[in-house]
Write a structure and sequence with these properties.
Oligomer: single chain
Structural class: alpha+beta
Bound molecules: zinc ion
Largest sheet: 4 strands, mixed
Strand order of the largest sheet: 2-1-4-3
Strand content: 5-15%
Number of strands: 4
Shape: rod-shaped
Distance between the termini: 110 Å
Length: 173
């Protein structure tokens, strides 16, 4: 378009076009080409501006993605560490239980495991201040009297929830 305008201008300047009508047409074409060129330059400018703002947005979003990814990595690392710690604890508690279970008579261990399965994971409970810590019920006087007179190695159970009761100095007997 610029070349065409330059060519037209050259023809105009050369004086080769002499008819007033041709001259007028040529001038009009030069003016129209100049206007179109101006319009196109505006379009190019606008596109460049939009491209720049899109690039800024891309940079901003990329930064946010990076920050979120950092948080994810951090949380994942903390989760993995916690899982590792829990696994270690499970292994140590399991081993500890095995040792203790080995010293408990089979029949008692069988009863404990059965009760544990029936009573939501708690097969034995402390007798504390005359109450069963398994079901939180206070034992009746007659029951307490029976427990009091029972031999230390007798297995006593809660009259209410049937869990094995563990006697201590705080049992209130
Ligand atoms: Zn109970």
């Amino acid at each position: 378009m610029r070349q065409r305008a330059a060519r037209d201008q050259k023809r105009l300047d050369s004086g080769a076009v002499s008819s007033p009508k041709d001259l007028e047409n040529l001038q009009r074409e030069i003016a129209s080409l100049a206007k179109r060129q101006g319009d196109l330059e505006d379009v190019v400018l606008e596109v460049m501006e939009r491209r720049e703002s899109a690039q800024e947005r891309v940079a901003e979003l990329t930064e946010r993605v990076g920050s979120v990814q950092g948080k994810i990595d951090d949380a994942t690392a903390r989760r993995d560490a916690a899982v590792e710690e829990i696994d270690g604890e499970v292994a140590s508690v399991t081993k500890e239980r095995e040792v203790i279970a080995g010293s408990v008579p089979d029949a008692l261990l069988g009863l404990y495991d059965k009760l544990r399965a029936q009573q939501g994971g708690i097969g034995a409970a402390k007798l504390y201040a005359r109450s069963c810590q398994g079901c939180r019920q206070e034992l009746a006087i007659t029951e307490l009297n029976e427990i009091r007179s029972a031999a230390p190695d007798t297995v006593v159970r809660c009259e209410n929830c049937r869990r094995i009761l563990v006697r201590t100095s705080e049992s209130g007997l």
